[in-house]
Amino acid sequence: MELLERCGLPRSMPPILVVGVLAAVTSIVVAVLHLSTPEAVADKPPAVSPAVAGPPGTAVVTSARAQVLSMTMATRNRWAAGWSDCTTGPGCKYAAVIDRDGVRATAPSWPVPYVTLQTGTEAIAVAPPLEGTLDGSASMMFRLTYDGPQLTKLRYRVPTTTFSQGEVLSDQIVPGRIAVVNPQDSTVRILQGRGTRSPICDGTGRCWMLSGIGRTDIVWTDDGGKTWGAQSLDTRNQLGGLAVSPDGQTLVSTTVVVTGSGQQVAKMAISTDRGNHWTPVQNPPASLSTSPVAFDDGTAMMIGGASGDRPRVYRISEGAAKLNGGYPGDLADLSGDQHLLYGPEVPKRRTTGVVLSTDNGATWTKFAPR
Description:
InterPro entries: Sialidase_sf (IPR036278), WD40/YVTN_repeat-like_dom_sf (IPR015943)
Number of strands: 28
Structural class: mainly beta
Protein name: Exo-alpha-sialidase
Distance between the termini: 66 Å
Oligomer: single chain
Organism: Kribbella aluminosa
Shape: globular
Keywords: Membrane, Transmembrane, Transmembrane helix
């Protein structure tokens, strides 16, 4: 009864009503205590304030000088595109657009370029930390679901040597390191271990990476980093890239050297038996814009040419690289597989559109990803 009087309730209140009031007060106290515990807070994605998220990115995407910096297509109707605007203010501004089955949304403006990634049949965009390290400012994840656009602050976790199925590996979020993004619990961490660049997971669950200082080794794991296999590819050159077909049978390794006129191809090799045997690629282009794209049929495609010349599309077949027909214009990048090839196009030195092919590069379709 003393508790009732302190709450401002008279002693004459009916017993049943007294019990109800006490139960309600107890429930409120327990709920407040539960919400104040670290465990309860940790189970919820951190709220994103407008100051952290930045202004709307629509102005970046619609700018007269806007350009496509990155493109990821999970399917023809599910993609994410990173955009830049370097004509306003003291520095560049960046944004991202996501399309999900015909519905589009634009991420907020960010001071550094967005990284576009694929997770299953979904494309997402990640805004990296400003300092280039996970010890500094926030990282954001932007995705589009059936419930609408979602902007989430990624929580940093301690580095690990392993990763799980469904997590996304990227060497673009933190320079020189491989980051592990978990879209389900909105976390990101550094992967410590054998690989340092070009992480690719094929359809069998095996993940491949490149490693080495002053040299290039290929490493792979079938159990999320618990055990690794390794093989030397180039004992003299470190820079380069790796392409792996969806079935994991076709691999293309490229190492390059930096000269006064740009990056020159030092060594290119292809394997059609899951990396057991490698064959040097004959007549590769003198320079490459990006890594090749490997197909399940033992072939590959890539963009390259002589340094300073207009880039061309080449196909690697029977151990040799040859010019490929059906190319619509100047491509800045080439990604995908034999079912969906795509890349940003550069008309008049400005990337504003993307071309895609669903027939292995025979014909191409253009569209603007904004």
